[in-house]
Fold:
Amino acid sequence: MLDLYAASIEATIHGCAMLVSYSLNAVQHSPNTAYVEGEVFFTDGSRLVFFEFLRSAPGGLNREKYRYHVMDAGNQLVFRYDNAPHHAKIATFPHHKHHPSDVTDSLAPSFAQVVEEIESTILGIS
Structure:
């Protein structure tokens, strides 16, 4: 199941119009757990660094932990989604989105949704 999941992430990366290069590492940690991590570089110099910790669940994989960190060409934060439990006052706790100057409510996005957001808001592709 991890192979299929990693392949779907790789397909999303390959579908990105502004892709320069990427690294992807998928590791089966135990019979029931795995992680996927990597980095995607875009033509404007921005990049996405991501991590997902996955656990087998009935009918698929449960994404227990995630982090999608997007930086501009100067390594400054553009946005980051994660579910680290450190913003208890956020309505969608533990899920939230970091911006350069604040943290806001956010449901857990999929990897594909993050890439779509990068394309539309950072790279200007609709």
